[in-house]
Structure prediction request, 242 residues.
Amino acid sequence: MTMLSVENLTARHGLLEAVRGLSFSIAKGEILALVGANGAGKTTLLRTLAGAHPVHGGSITIAGEDVTRLAAHQRVRRGIALVPEGRKMFAAMTVAENLKLGAMAGRKGDWSVERILDVFPNLRKRIGHKTGHLSGGEQQATAIGRALMSNPDILLLDEVSLGLSPAIVERVYASLDGLMRSGTTILLVEQDLSRAMAVADRVICLLEGRAVLEGRAKELTRDQVTEAYFGLNRKKNERVPA
Ligand code: ATP
Prediction:
């Protein structure tokens, strides 16, 4: 079953077209990694899918329903949840309060504060602490937990490793492992190509808002992805379409 489908999607910042006529779909339970250099349009795409950035053209469908014109909170009710880049926590609120905020969409499902604490055991002793006082890894775990509390069908993860030490990144990904295996559909942006290719079923490489490479992670070589990442697989003298 197709969980998320995007047709000819365009998103702009003023005159700049950050996402240019992008089409792809994600099957239920699939993990799709979105890679690409800084400015390729990854964050804009995720924010557009979540309804945090306006659609300029094209369509977004969740489980067969066209959500293109729906506001962000309506899309959360349809099952999409974004863990934004930089975590965007409510620093003056406690971990518990942040998690409960995630449940306000009122979607039914198995996620509860207790289950989040099972997935992220390092949060257990922090549950009553204000998130502004937590370490980067703990904040990231809270941000992911908050998204999960809406019982999403599709989780959008924007650079969960950003600003974290390698050891903490390991811990965050180890915690996500169970989630990935439990059949949650995930679209993740990850700067670390090796990690993206290791965790994802499929990889899309974006360059200047377009998909320049798409394939099953197991069938792509690191060289292929690196070339696409830097735009090296353009033919010589090929003009970049405007
Ligand atoms: P990064 O890895 O640096 O987060 P990205 O692939 O997520 O990059 P975006 O942040 O989506 O890329 O940016 C896509 C394009 O849109 C870039 O050219 C960027 O400069 C531009 N852009 C992003 N945010 C804004 C904004 N708020 N106002 C104007 N232009 C923007």
